[in-house]
Amino acid sequence: MKKKLIFKSPLYLLLLGLLFLNSCEKDNLPIDQTIYSNQVNFQVAYDEAFESSVYPSLILGLANYSARNAESFELFKYSMVNPTEHTEVKVNLSPSLINNESAFHAHLDTAEKEKAFFPMINWNYENLKSLKQPGTVDLSFACYINGEETDNKNLRLNYRSVNECVYGFIDDSGNYVDLGWMFAAYVNENNPSIDNFLEEVLYRHMVDAFTGYQVSKEEVMNQVFAIWNALQLRNVKYSSITATSNPSQKVFSQYVRSFDEVYQNSQANCVDGSVFLASVLMKIDIKPFLVLIPGHMYLGFYTSEDKTDFELLETTMVGDINLNEIYEANGEIHNLNKYLGYLSLDTYNRYLNGYATLENLKQEISYNSFLKAINQNISSWNYNRSAFNNPENVEYQIFDIAELRKVVQPIGI
């Protein structure tokens, strides 16, 4: 019996072909390429030495150095296991009180190897400058593998006041790391209030202009004295407040007032007064340095541009004199007796005979208190010279502000 030839329509043949292809694809389904969080093991850690606390002064002081050298402070660490070869990794840090949005990118070639990275953080510098009280901030990190979000982490940190200067800490190996040079970050020659203060100084006519080293050593000394005299007329007093609320046993810090706080409140401890005067001297191009000894700091300044000559100044002694309490009334001069040790007999007699004014008396009292403060630390300086020259002795240090500007910038408060 002959078989009949059956001719199929083109539509029938097309449907048959599609069914055949679909059958082949089912036999060759692709393997699931999804990458799961347990494969990556993404982790975020903050430097254990700082005990979950962010110190704005450290970030602000080293910001310029970090930007210039494209280096991070290695405060944060990202770690992960690369799940496949040739992986594109992105970690995104969301904006917070202390930082702007920060993205980290890396290309990983070798699979199944743990990698660690220390990212550059895009800090919110203006916010960091404004942090006067300690607080808490929550940070959110998202990890992307080949463009797909794989995991996210949250990290809660404390932040300290911008006035809290970290001068040392104990690292993970138990070694003390000296950061004493961070005091230079509080010397702020760029503070706009300095111009107002210098106008006050010039108003007193103790000097006609601030000319830095363009004059004799004697005139350099007169410029510094004019600043000293203006502080005494403002009745700036010594205040021993240095403690912070920081409970850390590994991070060592001290509260340092800003230039404006000293200027407006007329209070300063040894560090406050030294960085205040150093700020003004930097502004008028007289090079200062800070002298650190155990439990104390005082100021030094070069009287020659080549730094071959210098003077020392005990800034806490500015408050030993209250020029404003010396006044004339009812033909008598009041409260002068306590300051007779700063006054020569010749000047006093000239005043009694009408050849010197009360302002002349006050000026001499102020100048002699300045000379006394200049001489206060000479013996200590000479005695400790070997300690200053020993780089291992961190309790005795000299911080040349102009030299440190290569690394540490003013924190801007």
How do the strands and helices of this protein lay out in sequence?
Layout: H1 10-27, H2 37-40, E1 43-46, E2 53-54, H3 56-61, H4 63-69, E3 76-81, E4 87-93, E5 102-108, E6 114-117, H5 125-130, E7 135-145, E8 148-159, E9 164-170, E10 176-178, H6 193-203, H7 217-233, E11 237-238, E12 251-255, H8 259-265, E13 267-268, H9 270-283, E14 288-293, E15 296-302, E16 310-313, E17 327-329, E18 332-334, H10 345-352, H11 358-375, H12 378-383, H13 385-388, E19 397-400, H14 401-404
Organism: Prolixibacter bellariivorans
Keywords: Signal
Signal peptide: 1-25
Helix content: 25-40%
**What would you report as the Rg, rounded to the nearest angstrom?**
34 Å
Q: What is the first-to-last residue Cα distance?
A: 107 Å
Q: Provide the number of structural domains.
A: 2
What is the tally of beta strands? 19
Task: Characterize the largest beta sheet: strand count, sense, and whether it forms a barrel.
Answer: 5 strands, mixed
Oligomer type:
single chain
Number of distinct helices: 14
Strand content: 15-25%
Secondary structure category: alpha+beta
Uncertain runs: 1-8, 10-16, 23-32
Approximate shape = elongated
How confident overall, as mean pLDDT? 89
Provide the spatial order of strands within the biggest beta sheet: 2-8-7-4-5
